[in-house]
Design a protein that fits this description.
The protein is an alpha/beta fold. Helix content is 44%, strand content 9%. It is globular.
């Protein structure tokens, strides 16, 4: 005789119930003590990578991003600051923003100075520095920031020459404001000029961080050690690389994917790369280098020359040269 029993509800099997474990959620067991201890051994003993074995305090990328925003607003207040500024309020805005930005910059300069060899030599040994060294480093950071601030008007003049070069050199540009707000080359050059000023003042670590921020935002990689003249224009720009010891004259124009790089990297007797030697090109005034060209080594591209697209150039060319890909196939 059939019975009218209600079938039990089916419960979806979970990984825990399939393994016969309790369905109650249990905190995972990570064996944290042993992992943390092993990481400490790696960090402090077997694979220690802190600069000179002791520096923990690093410049903050987030802080540097804020500083760059502040400096852009100071240099071009209505473009990067506030669009509704008036003649009465603009100086107040610039002064207030500059004071806040320079105060933040001083701290990042102080941290960056920890990575310069001469400043480390003045520091006390061990993990930290003594009070006197901390005070000296902070005072030095104030001095560097003050010099940087005094250079801002001249730096702005260079940037305006770059903007005008872009506006006059690109038929698609409808205004200087468009160049300032919409051209990645403009952003990269602005970051380069700010970073280069800090590089010259003895804060290369911070300058490199600024260069990397620009690279991340624009795809353009300019080492802050490069020496670049006025009225510089990078059109389109993606993939442009300019090395540390490159020297670029005035009114030079580069297109996307141009490389001004090193041909070889000399090493010492121990096989360690020799740093700081001049290994990148010299590009004289009024040179145009078209897309995809690769210019390598400490060679000179003479004034007024044109380097065609996709050219591979490893030898100097005289002023007024016009180099095409076909000419360089046998180089």
């Amino acid at each position: 005789m059939a019975t009218n029993q209600t079938a039990p509800a089916r419960v979806a099997a979970t990984p825990a119930t399939r393994r016969g474990q309790a369905s109650t959620t249990m905190p995972p067991q990570w064996q944290l003590d042993s992992v943390v201890a092993a990481l400490r051994t790696s960090r402090e003993v077997t694979h220690k990578i802190r600069h000179h074995g002791r520096i923990r305090e690093l410049p903050s990328r987030d802080a540097v991003l804020g500083i760059l925003d502040g400096l852009a607003a100071v240099l071009f207040p209505t473009h990067y600051g506030q669009a509704n500024l008036s003649d009465e309020s603009i100086d107040y805005f610039v002064g207030n923003t500059l004071n806040t930005t320079l105060t933040a910059l001083t701290e990042q300069v102080r941290r960056g100075l920890l990575f310069t060899t001469d400043k480390l030599a003045e520091s006390a040994t061990g993990e930290g520095e003594d009070d006197a060294s901390d005070t000296d480093l902070y005072q030095q950071a104030i001095g560097i920031t003050r010099e940087f601030a005094s250079a801002l008007p001249a730096l702005r003049a260079l940037l305006v020459s770059d903007l005008q070069a872009a506006f006059h050199g690109d038929p698609a540009a409808t205004s200087v404001a468009e160049v300032l707000l919409c051209y990645p080359g403009t952003i990269a050059i602005m970051h380069y000029r700010l970073g280069h000023a800090l590089y010259q003042l003895g804060v290369p670590f911070l300058a490199r961080m600024i260069a990397d921020i620009a690279h991340t935002q624009t795809g353009i990689d300019i080492h802050p050690g490069a020496d670049i003249g006025s009225s510089f224009f990078i059109d389109h720009g993606t993939g442009v690389v300019i090395g540390e010891t490159a020297v670029i004259g005035q009114r030079v124009r580069l297109y996307q994917a141009v490389t001004l790089g090193a041909k070889r990297f000399p090493a010492d007797d121990n096989g360690t790369l020799i740093k700081g030697n001049a290994r990148h090109p010299i590009v004289e005034d009024d040179v145009v280098i078209y897309a995809g060209a690769t210019v390598l080594g400490r060679i000179t591209v003479g004034r007024g020359s044109t380097i065609g697209g996709n050219v591979w150039l490893t030898q100097s060319v005289p002023a007024g040269s016009c180099i095409s890909q076909a000419q360089m196939r046998n180089d």
